[in-house]
Amino acid sequence: MTATECPACEASVVVDDAVLPNEIVECGDCRSELEVVTTEPVLLALAPTIEEDWGE
Amino acid sequence: MTATECPACEASVVVDDAVLPNEIVECGDCRSELEVVTTEPVLLALAPTIEEDWGE
Amino acid sequence: MITAAVVGAAGYLGGELLRILLGHPAVRVVRATSERLAGRRVDGAHPNLRGHTGLTFRPMSELDHYDVLFLASRHRETMRVLPGLLGHADVVVDLSGDFRLADPELYHRHYGVEHTAPGLLGTFTTGLPERYRDRLRTADRISVPGCMATAGVLALAPLAEAGLVEGEVAVDARTGSSGSGASAGPENLHAERSGAFRVFAPLGHRHEAEIAQETGLAVRMTATGVEAVRGVQVLCRVRLAEGVAESTVRAAYRDRYRDEPFVRVVAERRGLYRLPEPKILAGSNFCDVGFAVDGPGGEGLLVAALDNLVKGGAGNAMQCVNIRFGLPETDGLEFAGLHPS
Amino acid sequence: MITAAVVGAAGYLGGELLRILLGHPAVRVVRATSERLAGRRVDGAHPNLRGHTGLTFRPMSELDHYDVLFLASRHRETMRVLPGLLGHADVVVDLSGDFRLADPELYHRHYGVEHTAPGLLGTFTTGLPERYRDRLRTADRISVPGCMATAGVLALAPLAEAGLVEGEVAVDARTGSSGSGASAGPENLHAERSGAFRVFAPLGHRHEAEIAQETGLAVRMTATGVEAVRGVQVLCRVRLAEGVAESTVRAAYRDRYRDEPFVRVVAERRGLYRLPEPKILAGSNFCDVGFAVDGPGGEGLLVAALDNLVKGGAGNAMQCVNIRFGLPETDGLEFAGLHPS
Amino acid sequence: MITAAVVGAAGYLGGELLRILLGHPAVRVVRATSERLAGRRVDGAHPNLRGHTGLTFRPMSELDHYDVLFLASRHRETMRVLPGLLGHADVVVDLSGDFRLADPELYHRHYGVEHTAPGLLGTFTTGLPERYRDRLRTADRISVPGCMATAGVLALAPLAEAGLVEGEVAVDARTGSSGSGASAGPENLHAERSGAFRVFAPLGHRHEAEIAQETGLAVRMTATGVEAVRGVQVLCRVRLAEGVAESTVRAAYRDRYRDEPFVRVVAERRGLYRLPEPKILAGSNFCDVGFAVDGPGGEGLLVAALDNLVKGGAGNAMQCVNIRFGLPETDGLEFAGLHPS
Amino acid sequence: MITAAVVGAAGYLGGELLRILLGHPAVRVVRATSERLAGRRVDGAHPNLRGHTGLTFRPMSELDHYDVLFLASRHRETMRVLPGLLGHADVVVDLSGDFRLADPELYHRHYGVEHTAPGLLGTFTTGLPERYRDRLRTADRISVPGCMATAGVLALAPLAEAGLVEGEVAVDARTGSSGSGASAGPENLHAERSGAFRVFAPLGHRHEAEIAQETGLAVRMTATGVEAVRGVQVLCRVRLAEGVAESTVRAAYRDRYRDEPFVRVVAERRGLYRLPEPKILAGSNFCDVGFAVDGPGGEGLLVAALDNLVKGGAGNAMQCVNIRFGLPETDGLEFAGLHPS
Ligand SMILES: NC(=O)c1ccc[n+]([C@@H]2O[C@H](COP(=O)([O-])OP(=O)(O)OC[C@H]3O[C@@H](n4cnc5c(N)ncnc54)[C@H](OP(=O)(O)O)[C@@H]3O)[C@@H](O)[C@H]2O)c1
Ligand SMILES: NC(=O)c1ccc[n+]([C@@H]2O[C@H](COP(=O)([O-])OP(=O)(O)OC[C@H]3O[C@@H](n4cnc5c(N)ncnc54)[C@H](OP(=O)(O)O)[C@@H]3O)[C@@H](O)[C@H]2O)c1
Ligand SMILES: NC(=O)c1ccc[n+]([C@@H]2O[C@H](COP(=O)([O-])OP(=O)(O)OC[C@H]3O[C@@H](n4cnc5c(N)ncnc54)[C@H](OP(=O)(O)O)[C@@H]3O)[C@@H](O)[C@H]2O)c1
Ligand SMILES: NC(=O)c1ccc[n+]([C@@H]2O[C@H](COP(=O)([O-])OP(=O)(O)OC[C@H]3O[C@@H](n4cnc5c(N)ncnc54)[C@H](OP(=O)(O)O)[C@@H]3O)[C@@H](O)[C@H]2O)c1
Ligand SMILES: [Zn+2]
Ligand SMILES: [Zn+2]
Questions:
Q1: H/E run at residue E132
Q2: How far is ligand 3, taken at its centre, from the CA of residue E147, in Å?
Q3: Which residues contact A50 (CB under 8 A, 6 or more apart)?
Q4: C-beta of B56 in contact with ligand 1 (< 6 A)
Q5: CB of D276 closer than 6 A to ligand 2?
Q6: N or C: which end of chain C has fewer CB within 10 A?
Q7: Per the CB < 8 Å rule, is F41 touching B31?
C-alpha cells in the first residue's frame, strides 16, 4: 500500500502496490476517478468525467 | 391486576386493581375503548366510538 | 348566459365547480356560498382562481334565483338544507351523497343516520350521462354519483348490461386525499397521510350500494387511501359468463362507449400506461376504463380511473348541466390532462 | 387555420406543445416528428392525448412546409438540425437552449461545446412576451428562454428595470423531474429521484447567463432537484437600493404586470399560498411572482413559480406564436391550474 | 465472527444486505461483488453506508470461501451462476426467484425460460422462519421467498393451516418502486413512475405460484405499482369456512404468531393505523398482518405489509442465517421503523 | 440502567425519543407523559412501537424522579412547565426552543412573547456535542438546538471557526412536514402540504438567531417547506476570505470532523449523491456536510442535511445524554439510514 495525494482535492489516497499504469482508482474524499500515470513512484492524474445533464 | 375478557375481541385485558367504574381502558389487541361497568368483578363494556369519515 | 350558484363553494368540490364554471363559455357564476368564509374572497380559498374571479363568498341566506344551483356541501348536512333551496333555481344539482340512494333504509345503513327528507329521494335523476343522458335532458333535480361509484359503474356497465358477468363482484378502490375534503381531521395530516396505504374501508364501503343499485350486481367493496391528492382507481374482479372470451369483452366496451365524449377504453398490450390510472387524468373529465381477462369463462379484472373532483364530481355535474341546457356536452370540460404529471 | 409542426415531439416539451396545439382554436398540428418513434402513434408516448389525436410520429426527413415550426429537440443537437429546417416554415420557434445566448463564447462556457451555427445566434428574438411583445409581432425566429431563466427574469425585471436593486443577485432555483426530459439516466430513476433534495448545480447554473443577459444584473445561481414532476420555483435574494420600501416594491410589480395576461403578483399576508409556488400551476401558463422585503434599503426576497413545461416552455412558445399571428394572446392557454393538486 | 460475502452487492437488495450485515454483532462482511462496478467503492453505490465501510466491489471471479454467501443477483441469471458458487461457502442463501419453486415446469411458466439447474431445485429450504424454523437450523441452501409472496403467505397461513378458509383466494398486491431493482428501465423514470397506480400484473402475477405452494390454496393475484419507494401491502380476499366468526379469526392469528419476533397482529378498532401498512415499516424486519371479517361464514379481508427489501428480502435472509448459525434471531434486525415517515 | 422519562411523549419528537430510548442498551424508559392521551397506550400514538413497549401515557402530574428527563413539549409552553420539573431528574434535557437563546430580548423578538423564566436561560448548556462535548460531560441542564440551526451551525462551523469566511451568510433552509409537529393546522393538511414549495419564512426565520449565536456570523435565513415528511437541508451562501481555495475548505472540513461519529463530509465529484441530502438520512443520527466553492476568494455554497427528528432533535439529545453519562456516544444511534428510501 502506498499513500499518495489526490490531484483534485489533496486528500491522501492509498493505492495497492500491485496497481498497474492506466488503472483507475477512486479518491475516498472527493470520489474523483484517478488514472495511474506511473507506478514507481505512484503518480495519479484526474481521469476525464462526463457531466450529468439535468437539462432545464 | 385483574385479567378479564375484551367484549369486542375476546382478548385478555389486564385491568389495574385501582380502576373505578366509568373509567375507560383500552384493549391491547383490538384497541377498543372499554368502559368499566362494575369493578367487583371487573366488567367491561364497549364504549361508543365515532367513525372517521373518509368522505367520498 | 345561464346563471349559476354554488352552495358549499369553499370546499374542494365547490372550488372545482367554480374553476369549471368560470371557464365555461355559456355560464356565468353569480354566487358562491360559504358560511365559514362569508365576506372573504373566493380566490383566497382557491388560489388557482386568482385572476379569474373577484367574487366573494356569501352565506346561503343571501341566495337569489338562478338557472342552476349546485350543492357541494357535506353529506348528512345537505339533506337538511336542500329542501329549503329548491325554490332558488330551475335546476338543482346535488353532489353530496344525500340523494343518491333511492331507498332511505339503505341510506341509514350506509350513512349511519335517518334521512331527513325521504320524500325527495325519488325525485332525483342520477347524474350519470353514460346511463341517463335522455332523462337528464329534462331533469330538474340531479344527484351526481360518488366518485368511486362512478368509476365502478362505468367499469362494470358494459359487461353487466350485456350479461357477460356472473356472481358477486369484488371492487378494490384506491383514492387520493382530496376525496376527504378540505375540512378533514388528523387522519389527513400530511405526515400521517403521506405515503399511506390506508385500508380505511376493508369491507362494505358505502359506494357498494350505489354500484349495486346501478349495475344490478352483488358488490363487495374495499377502499384504500394511497399517496395522491387527486385520483380514484377501481379494480373490479369478476367471473365471466360461460364462453365469454377477451374479444367479446373488448367489443362490449368498444360498442358501449363508442360515442361517449368522456369515456376512453384503455387496454393496451404495450407502453407504460396499459390500463387506466388517474395520474394522467388530474383536471380532466375522462373516466378511462379497461380490462384484462383470462381464457373464456375465466376471471376478469376491470379497471377504471378518474379524477374524483372532476368526472367523480364537478366535471360530471357540469356535463349533466350541459345536457340539461342543450349545450355542447364538452363545454367547459376540454382540458386533456397532463403527461407527465 | 394556421398549420404547425413539432420537431422532437416525443419528448416532454414536445408532448406539451401537442397538448396545447390540439386544444387551440386557430391552429392545426399537421406533423409531429420523432426519429426513435417514427411510425408509432403519438398517443402511445403521450397517453393524455388519447382521444385527441390520431397522428403518428414521422421522421424529420418527411417535413413539408408549415406556417410555424416548433423545435423541442435536445440542446447541443438542435443547433445542428435547425439550420436545415429554416426553409420549412414561415416562423421557427426553438425551445432548446441553443439559440438563447447572443454570444457564442458564453454558449461554449455553459454548454461545454462550440456552437455550430454562431452566425444564426443574432437572428433570434427572445420569446418572452413580457419583455419583447412588440418585436415578437414580426419575429420569424423565436428562441424561448429556459424555464428557470423565465422565472428568474420575471421575478427580477420590475425591480431591475426600475433600478431598485443593487449589487449581485443570488438565485436559488428548485425544479421537478420533468425538467430533465424523457430520456434521462439513472439520476432520474424513481427510487433515486423520489424525495430528493439534489443540489445538482451548487454554483454557476447555466441559466445564470440568460438571466444576466436579460436583467443586466450580476447573477449567481444554484439549482436543486426536489420532489415534484412539474414545477420550478426561484428565490432571488437581492439588496434593495437606498430608501426603497415595501410599498415601492409592490407598486413596481403591480405596474409592471398590470396588463400581463400570464403574470400574477402574489405577495399576501394571509392564507396558505402567500408567495408563488408551482403546486397550483401545473398545466397553466401563469408565472406567479411575489416578494418579501426588509425595512427600506434592506434585503429583498423575490419569488417566482411556473410550470417548466408550460410558461417555462411550450405555453410560453404558444403565447409568442399567438402574438406573432395576431391571435388572442390567451388562445389555447386558458387552463387555470388545479387546487388542490 | 462469521464471514459473509454478497454476490450482486451493487443492487438494491445487495445494498440492504450490506447495511444489515455491517450492523450485525457476529458477522463480518468480507466480500461484495459487482461486475459492473468492480474496483469502485461500495459506498458510492450505497451512500447510506458512508462511514460504515471502506469495501470496494470485486468481480465474482475473485470469490474465496466464506461461512455464508448471499446471492442478490437477478433472477434468470442467478440459476446460471449459483451452481458454480456452491463450493465457496458452507451456507448459500439465494434471494433471487430462481430456486423458490420446487417444480421446473412452474418456473418455466412464470419466468418464461427453462430452468438451467433443475436438479438443484429440490435441495433448497424455503427461507421463511415462520414456517420452516426447524429445518432452517440445519439448512445449507436457503431460498428466500419473494417479497409479495412472503406477505401473502404470512397473511394467509393462520387461516389456511387451521382450515378456516374455503375456495379461491384473490390477492391484491401493491408495491413501491424499489421492487424493480436498480437497473430498471423507462417505466421507472421518476416522471412516469411518480404518482402511478400501475396495474402491471392484472392477473396471474408470478408470486401466485409461491403463495399457492406454501398455503395449499388456489390463488389469483393482481399487482399494482403505487407511489412509494419501499413497501409492499397485500390484501387477500377470502371466504371464511362455515361458522367461522371474527373471534376465531383473531384467535388464530394471535396463537399462530404469539412467539414470532417479526410478525405483529394489527387489527384495531381505533386510531389511524388500524390495519397493516408499509409506511411505518421502512427499514424494519416486521411483517404486520391483520384482518377484517363479515359475520360468521362471510367474507374476510386479510392484510399484510412489509418492507420489500427487509422482511421481503435481505432482513428475512438475515433472520434465516441467524437461525442457521444459532444466533439470536433478532441480531442485526433491531430497527423499529419510523413514525412519522 | 439509567432511568428516563419523556414529557410531551405524544408528539413527533416525543415518539422519536421513545423509539431511540427503547432501543438503547443502557437506558430504561419508565415514564411517558401526555395530557391529551393520558391513559392511552403509547403504541397507539406511535404505531412503529408496537411490540416494543406496553407503556401507557400518564399526565405530567404523575412524574417521579428519574436519572434523566427529556422535555419534548411545545415551545412557549415549555418555559412554563420546566421550572417545576427540575426537581424530578438529575439531568434535564429540553428539546423545545425555550432555553436555546441566552438573551431574553432575542427570545421575545423571535417567539413573540416574554420569556417567563429568564433567570434559567443562562443555566443551560447547548446540546451540540460537536461544539460542547466537554461541557456536556458534566451538564445537568441541556438545551438541544433547533433542527435547522444544527444543520446551519455544522455547515458553517469549520469555516467560521477558522476565519475562512467574510461578511453576511445567507441561509436557505428546506424542511419536511414533520418539523411542524403532530398538532399542526390546515396548512399541514395533506392535500395542501403535498408537493408544496412553501416559503413560510421568506426573511428572518427564527433559527437565524441560534446560528448567529453559535457562529458569530451575521445570518439571514429563509425557510421553505417542501415535499417530505422528515428531513432538513440548508444551503449557506458565503463569501470566502481572500485567497481561500477549495483545498483549504476541504481540509478545514476534514480536520474539524475527523473524529466526529455523526458528521460526514460529503462533497464528491461523481455519483448521484454528491452533496448532502436528507433522503438517505431518515432515522439516522448523521448530519452530512459538504461544500462547493468558486476560485480562491470567491463564493462558497455550504450544504448540510439531517433528519429533523433525529440529529435535529431526539438523536442529538440522546448523543448528549450518552456523553453526560459516560456511555459510548453511538449507543442507541446505530441505524445507518436507508438507500433507496
Ligand atoms: N371530495 C370529493 O372527491 C368528492 C367527490 C364527490 C362528491 N363529494 C361530496 O361532495 C360534498 C363536498 O365534498 P368536499 O370534498 O368538497 O367537502 P369539503 O371540502 O369538506 O367541503 C364541504 C364544506 O365544508 C366546509 N369547509 C370546507 N373547508 C373547511 C375547513 N377548512 N374547515 C371547516 N369547514 C370547511 C365548507 O362549508 P362552509 O364554508 O359553508 O362552512 C364546505 O362547503 C360531500 O358531500 C362529499 O361527500 C366529494
Ligand atoms: N423539460 C423542460 O422543462 C424544458 C423546458 C424548457 C426547455 N427545454 C429544452 O427543450 C428541449 C427538449 O426538452 P425535453 O425535456 O422535451 O427533452 P426530452 O424529453 O429528453 O426530449 C428530447 C428528445 O429526446 C428524444 N427522446 C425522448 N424520449 C426519449 C427516450 N425515452 N429515449 C430516447 N430518446 C428520447 C426525442 O427525440 P427523438 O424521438 O427524435 O429521438 C425528443 O425529441 C431541450 O433542449 C431542453 O433543454 C426543456
Ligand atoms: N427489489 C426487491 O424488492 C426484491 C425483493 C426480493 C427479491 N428480489 C430479487 O432479488 C434479486 C435482486 O434484486 P434487486 O432489486 O436488488 O435487483 P437490482 O437492483 O436490479 O440488482 C441486480 C443486479 O443488477 C446489477 N445492477 C444494479 N444496478 C444496476 C444498474 N444501474 N445498471 C445495470 N446493472 C445494475 C447488479 O449486478 P452487477 O453489478 O454485477 O452488474 C446487481 O447485482 C432479483 O432476483 C429479484 O427478483 C428483489
Ligand atoms: N418536529 C421537529 O422537527 C422538531 C425538531 C426540534 C425541536 N422541536 C421542538 O420540540 C418541541 C416538540 O415538537 P414536536 O414536533 O414533537 O411537537 P408536537 O408533535 O406538536 O407535540 C408537542 C405536544 O403537542 C401535543 N400534541 C401532539 N399531537 C397532538 C394533536 N394531534 N393534537 C393536539 N395536541 C397534540 C402533545 O402534548 P399533550 O399530549 O401533552 O397534549 C405534544 O407533547 C417543540 O417545542 C418544537 O419546537 C421540534
Ligand atoms: Zn480527491
Ligand atoms: Zn379487544
A1: helix E129-136
A2: 14
A3: none
A4: yes
A5: no
A6: N
A7: yes
Residue E113 has pLDDT above 80, yes or no: yes
Instruction: Judge whether F2-123 and F147-306 match in fold.
Output: no
Is residue F34 in contact with ligand 4, taking CB distance under 6 Å? Answer: yes
- Alpha-carbon distances of E231 from C197, D210, E234, E281, rounded to whole Å: 9, 43, 10, 8
d(CA E235, CA E148): 10
Q: Which of F195, F237, F272 comes nearest D170 by C-beta?
A: F237
Domain E2-123 top-level CATH class: alpha beta
Fold of E147-306: Dihydrodipicolinate Reductase; domain 2 (3.30.360)
CA distances from C241 to C159, C245, C298, C301, F36 (A): 10, 9, 8, 14, 56
What are the boundaries of each domain within chain F? 2-123, 147-306
pLDDT of residue B54: 60
Topology given in CATH for the domain delimited by B2-46: Rubrerythrin, domain 2 (2.20.28)
Q: What is the pLDDT of residues E117-126, one digit of tens each?
A: 999 999 999 9
- The secondary structure of chain F, three-state, reads CEEEEEECCCCHHHHHHHHHHHCCCCEEEEEEECCCCCCCEHHHHCHHHCCCCCCECECHHHCCCEEEEEECCCCCCHHHHHHHHHHHEEEEEECCCCCCCCCHHHHHHHHCCCCCCHHHHCCCEECCHHHHHHHHCCCCEEECCCHHHHHHHHHHHHHHHCCCEEEEEEEEEEECHHHHCCCCCHHHEHHHHCCCEEEEECCCCCHHHHHHHHHCCCEEEEEEEECCCCCEEEEEEEEECCCCCHHHHHHHHHHHHCCCCCEEECCCCCCCCCCCCHHHCCCCCCEEEEEEECCCCCEEEEEEEECCCHHHHHHHHHHHHHHHCCCCCCCCCCCCCCCCC
Q: How confident is the model at residue A54 (pLDDT cuts 50, 70, 90)?
A: low
Are D237 and D168 spatial neighbours (Cβ–Cβ below 8 Å)? Answer: no
What residue in B sits closest to F41 (Cα-Cα)? Answer: B26
Altogether, the residues listed in chain C come to a count of: 341
The residue of chain C nearest to residue E282, with distances taken between CA atoms, is C195
Ligand 6 center from residue B26 Cα (angstroms): 8
| Beta-carbon neighbours within 5 Å of ion ligand 6 | B 6, 8-9, 11, 27, 29-30, 32
Give the global pTM.
0.97
Distance (Å) from CA E75 to ligand 3 centroid:
9
D278-290 pLDDT tens trace: 999 999 999 999 9
End-to-end CA distance of chain D: 34
Is the beta carbon of D182 within 6 A of some atom in ligand 2? yes
pLDDT band at residue A10 using 50, 70 and 90 as cut-offs: confident
Q: What mean pLDDT is predicted for residues C58-77? A: 98
Instruction: Please check whether residue D113 is in contact with residue D80, taking contact to mean a CB–CB distance below 8 angstroms.
Output: no
Is E147 known to be catalytic?
yes
Q: Chain-centre distance of CA D3, in angstroms?
A: 23
Q: Is the ipTM of this complex over 0.95?
A: yes
Pocket-testing residue among C7, C13, C100, C175, ligand 1, by greatest number of atoms within 8 A of Cβ = C13
pLDDT for the residue numbered D277: 98
Question: Count of H helices and E strands in chain A?
Answer: 0, 5
Q: How far is the CA of D173 from the centre of ligand 5 (A)?
A: 28
Residue C316 distance to chain B (closest CA, Å): 15
D49 — phi, psi (to 5°)? Answer: -90, 5
F194-247, pLDDT tens digit by residue?
999 999 999 988 899 999 999 999 999 999 999 999 999 999 999 999 999 999
Q: How is residue F24 written as a grid cell?
A: 438503547
CB E126 near ligand 3, within 6 Å: no
Residue of chain C with shortest Cα separation from F177:
C191
